[in-house]
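Internal tracking record. Fields below are filled automatically when a chain is submitted to the structure queue. Please do not edit lines marked as system-generated. If the sequence contains nonstandard residues, flag them in the REMARKS field before resubmitting.
Queue: standard
Priority: normal
Entity type: single polypeptide chain
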Amino acid sequence: MGGSYWLLLLVGGILLLSINCGDASCPQDGRPGVNGGPGRDGLPGPKGEKGEPVLEQYTGSRLTLKGISGPRGAQGPMGPKGYSGQLGPRGEPGSTGKPGPDGVQIGQVKKAPQKKSAFSVIRTNNRYPQVGQNVAFESAVVLTNPSEFNLQTGVFTCSAPGIYYFTFNSVAKVSMCLAINSNTLNARLGFCDHNNRNLDQVLSGGVVLQLEAGQQVWLESFREIQQSSDFNDRRDKQVIFNGFLLF
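SYSTEM-GENERATED OUTPUT FOLLOWS
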């Protein structure tokens, strides 16, 4: 009985204190504190689990997603002209074409008269032609213009400009040297035949020259390794000198 009494007094005292505590001396709830600074980043989280596989189609060596083909787009504008490429190799020649039709002559065509010039002269003197001198001739086989060739001097003088061909042949039993010379040449064109068999030997030479009117050509004798006996020989000898206008 005594213990219950004191318990009731204690409970009653606490109730009185809670009813009468309304001033500043009574305890109150505190104010919220200031927000703290941001914390550091946390550690990376663990790797997530593998997702569910999508539908794929096997093409060749790998699996690819098969999408639906879209509609064809409109043609874009023409781009700028590119740079010229390198020249290719030359092609094979083409086949020969068919001959064209014959031409039609308009008016009368007059052809200029073709000039002619030719000579062929012979020397049959059995004396050796004098060395360093022009070869003279006794007769002419062909001489289209007698004023062009002088038999005594052996000189041809051009009267019809053009391209000429000159040639000579000689037959003798001794060594002989002959040369074609002209006032158009820087040096004579010499030909030699050395005969040690005392048989008829043929010596020949030729040249093509372009001549103007008044220019001259002749045949002359010269010495190389001939013996004195060759110059004193009196056996038969023959020299033929020819020339004619080509065009």
